[in-house]
Amino acid sequence: MKKQFIIGLMISIFLCVILTSCGGGGAKVESTVSTQTLGQQLIDLEKAYKEGVLTEKEYNKAKKALIEKYE
């Protein structure tokens, strides 16, 4: 019974090591998820502009980038 447990444990450890080493060879994977709609992002951007957080030039540039992102 104890021998079977040790063998099972060793097999489990071996499988974990083998499976974790199959990570894609260092490939960089990026994923972004946005839960805000374009409209909400534009509203937030305008609010930042009106509060003086952004200059008019920064506001227009960010607004253009957001709209292009969703086209």
Question: How would you summarize this macromolecular structure in one to three sentences?
Answer:
By secondary structure, this protein is mostly helical.
Question: What is the string of helix and strand elements?
Answer: HHH
Radius of gyration: 26 Å
Return the average pLDDT rounded to an integer. Answer: 79
Describe the largest sheet.
none
Strand content: under 5%
Annotation, overall tally of beta strands? 0
Overview of this structure, please?
The chain has 71 residues and is mostly helical. It has a domain of 36 residues. The chain is 65% helix and 0% strand. The protein contains three helices and no strands. It is rod-shaped.
Give me some keywords for this one:
single chain; mainly alpha; 65% helix; 3 helices; 71 residues
